[in-house]
Write a structure and sequence with these properties.
The structure holds 2 protein chains of 2 kinds. By secondary structure, chain A is of the alpha/beta class. Chain A has a single domain (26-297), classed as TIM Barrel (Alpha-Beta Barrel), CATH 3.20.20.70. Chain A contains 13 helices and 10 strands. In chain A, helix 10 (244-252) runs parallel beside helix 12 (270-282). Chain B is 29% helix and 35% strand. Chain B has helices at residues 14-28, 40-44, 56-65, 68-77, 87-92, 191-204; strands spanning 3-8, 32-37, 48-51, 82-85, 93-98, 102-103, 112-118, 128-134, 139-146, 151-155, 160-165, 168-174, 177-180. In chain B, helix 1 crosses helix 6. Chain B is globular, with a radius of gyration of 15 Å. Chain B starts with a strand and ends with a helix. In chain B, 57% of the residues are buried. Classes of the chains: A alpha/beta, B alpha/beta. At the A-B interface, strand 2, helix 1 and helix 12 of A face helix 1, helix 3 and strand 8 of B.
Chain lengths: 322, 205
């Protein structure tokens, strides 16, 4: 069974309905978190067109994420980045059998409502787009559609889960082709989980209360997470993944799966690379297979990549303080 | 006698199935080990196999890569019990159609003569929980968790219908092969996993 820590059984997004075969419920935490569980050990790929979505599906992606521009192009373009065109999202939904996700701006309740009406399978409240509200994220319990949110620490992850996120991903630093930040974020979350687990095991309730205050989330959620010793939702790696070895490395750090943004479709060998990253994610603990996957790509075709230290825009900082 | 039960660990919710199967073994007092399996070698040692939920296109393509698909088919044809859940049921079927996209060209095991419709109840927003009954296997009430679930529109001869929901077939059985459209591993109730463990026990005797 699933950990349902923090679930709100009175959430507005839960729909009670009647059918010929009896009562039905939609939008429960089991259904939202369960959906994310079906993606485990898989790769979600950022796409901007139907053709890219089909390449992703053929490569074995578990889902596609529709954007107007790939994160690295968002970086280059500057200006305000918003949710993708609904027509393109719908065209993609009609042309692949795998789930389709789309991004909305942090705090932009109505971009999220539009995506829910469009019937996307999951909404990513994403720092890749320009935040619409610096102080609030969306109260995701009001939606029947599940959400995924980025986080770079345990406190951020728990705040998002408390708001109703059904899945977490590291933020990394999107659009850089540089995996360093994603590595830092997953290690930080893991370290923090280990330390609250140790506090829980020691039976020191006062210290757990202190952690809850520090994290700015409810004591119950901290206690249940500490008891589990892991996040109560699926946790993927994202932000800067560009090669099969990047994907395998993050899987080895305990991530449940991988999001690839610009790394595939901004490379010049997208088709082979998509396939290779899927293979490396599936068989991450077999070095021979990871090597074979890595051999399928050509480093000279990789996206150029950016050193995080030189960046003017650090997307990962968006929405972190709230 | 100890049973070796495997959960195909290519992609999907492998861990949840391992946990549910372990609980089922404990509650039944049956000795056994439950392992995630990926390679042909590991699969060849099994007494029973669960193909979990996930994305059927991904699971199919990747199990072709390391030839586990072939060995799974051989093992099932030789009679080991298999439980296919959601994507796993799709994998067991002869042909799959997507409700919107139409006929899919994905690798399948072609072991259950059923006509299958993928994403039959709609997209994620339409995913639902509801009680279903599988009276013929003595599970009169079960919390069905349907996530972008498939359904079966028609069954061939010898395929028994275990459950229907709103006139759609959501659980089937043929000999030692079981396919369900919902996710028993996401609920507390392990009665279906228990039924499956008993089936494995019987087949090994």
């Amino acid at each position: 069974m699933l950990p349902l820590s923090g679930e709100r059984i009175d959430a507005k997004g839960i729909i009670k309905d009647k059918s010929d075969s009896g009562n039905i419920l939609r939008g429960t935490s089991t259904l939202k978190r369960g959906f994310a569980h079906m993606l485990k050990n898989g790769v979600v790929m950022d796409v901007t067109t139907v053709e890219q979505a089909q390449i992703a599906e053929e490569a074995g992606a578990v889902s596609v994420m529709v954007l107007d521009k790939l994160p690295s192009d968002v970086r280059k373009a500057g200006g305000v980045a918003r949710t993708a065109s609904i027509r393109i999202i719908e065209d993609i939904m009609d042309s692949v059998t795998i789930p389709v996700m789309a991004k909305c701006r942090i705090g932009h309740v109505y971009e999220a409502k539009v995506l829910e009406e469009t019937n996307v399978d999951m909404i990513d409240e994403s720092e890749v787009l320009t935040p619409a509200d610096e102080n609030h994220h969306i109260w995701k319990w009001d939606f029947t559609t599940p959400f995924v949110n980025g986080a770079r620490s345990l406190s951020e992850a728990l705040r998002r889960i408390e708001e109703g996120a059904a899945m977490i991903r590291t933020k990394g630093e999107p659009g850089t082709g540089n995996v360093a930040e994603a590595v830092t974020h997953i290690k930080k979350v893991n370290d923090e989980l280990r330390s609250i687990k140790a506090i829980y095991d020691s039976g020191d309730n006062q210290d757990l209360v202190r952690m809850a205050r520090e994290f700015k989330v409810s004591y119950d959620l901290v206690e249940e997470t500490a008891k589990l010793g892991r996040l109560p939702v699926v946790n993927f790696a994202a932000g800067g993944i560009a090669t099969p070895a990047d994907a395998a490395y993050l899987m080895s750090l305990g991530c449940d799966g991988i999001f690839v943004g610009s790394g595939i479709f901004n490379a010049n060998d997208a088709k082979e690379r998509a396939r290779a990253i899927v293979l490396a994610t599936t068989f991450w603990n077999e070095s021979e297979k990871v090597k074979e996957a890595q051999k399928m790509i050509d480093e000279r075709q990789s996206m150029l990549g950016l050193d995080v230290k030189t960046l003017e825009l650090r997307m990962q900082e968006r929405g972190s303080s709230a | 006698m100890s049973l070796t039960i495997g959960v195909l660990a290519i992609q999907g919710d492998v861990h949840e199935n391992i946990t549910s199967t372990k609980t089922a073994l404990e509650e039944l007092g049956v000795e056994g080990t439950v392992v995630g399996v990926k390679t042909a070698e590991a699969i060849s040692k099994l007494d029973g196999l669960i193909i979990p939920g996930g994305e059927s296109t991904t699971i199919g393509q990747l199990s072709l890569v390391n030839s586990s698909l072939k060995i799974i088919k051989e093992k099932i044809e030789r009679g080991i019990p298999v439980l296919g859940i959601c994507a796993g049921m799709i994998m067991l079927s002869k042909t799959a159609n997507d409700r919107v996209v139409g006929k899919t060209d994905q690798p399948l095991l072609d072991l259950l003569d059923i006509k299958l419709e993928r994403n039959s109840f709609g997209r994620q927003k339409e995913s639902f929980e509801a009680d279903i009954s599988m009276n013929s296997i003595n599970i009169p009430k079960f919390n069905g968790v349907f996530i972008r679930a498939p359904s079966v529109s028609d069954v061939g001869s010898g395929v028994e219908v275990l459950a229907k929901f709103n006139e759609k077939i959501v659980a089937v059985k043929k000999g030692n092969i079981i396919g369900v459209a919902f996710h028993p591993e996401l609920t507390k109730d392990v009665s279906l996993h228990k039924y499956f463990v008993n089936l494995i026990k019987k087949s090994k005797n």
